[in-house]
Prior knowledge:
Blueprint: E1 32-41, E2 46-54, E3 60-66, H1 71-83, E4 93-96, H2 100-103, H3 105-113, E5 117-120, H4 130-142, H5 152-168, H6 180-183, H7 200-206
Parallel strand pairs: 1-4, 4-5
Antiparallel strand pairs: 1-2, 2-3
Amino acid sequence: RKRKVVTTNSRHWMHKYNNLIKILVVNGPEQVWVSDITYIQLRKQWGYLSLITDAYSKKIMGWAFRKDLSAQGCIDALRMAIADRKYPQNKLIHHSDRGSQYCSKSYVGILTDGNIAVSMTENGDPYENAIAERVNGILKAEFDLYGAQTGLRETTRKIRDNIQVYNQIRPHASCDYLTPEQAHLKQGELKKRWKPKKYKSDQNTNV
């Protein structure tokens, strides 16, 4: 699906941070959080869903849904995630794109006060925030959120219910077929259970 709505404005004067997770090996929960904003179509306008996901367990730690792209939605999601931490003693990195919401003084201030390191994409490449993009896609495709076509209250309720199912019931092939809630209780490397995709050139070589 082609992106219909721009949710990131990185052309601003605020300070941008380096990418701290380029070569980092994530081997436990609450080591890295990834954040992103995605759009959902309401009855007569767009709504914007802010998500914070744990990179290890793929658990959605915090979320907020609003009719605007202000920093408040991201702040609400961040506060929810911090309140839901299970390992507050762990050193945590928060990774996002360079959108103005994540660079805002109020948002960075919450991270700094919580002793959470700030990391951001550097080249505008979605692969630099691939986990967050993947979670967006799962919620919208598998849980039918591409076009809710309902009001804010109804859509918010649907998002809440779907995130609960996602966290507690849906297994992930990237997490040894554990649910995010189960994976969040683990430590160490989780086996990836998907099979690598075979392309025609590979198949011809094997013949």
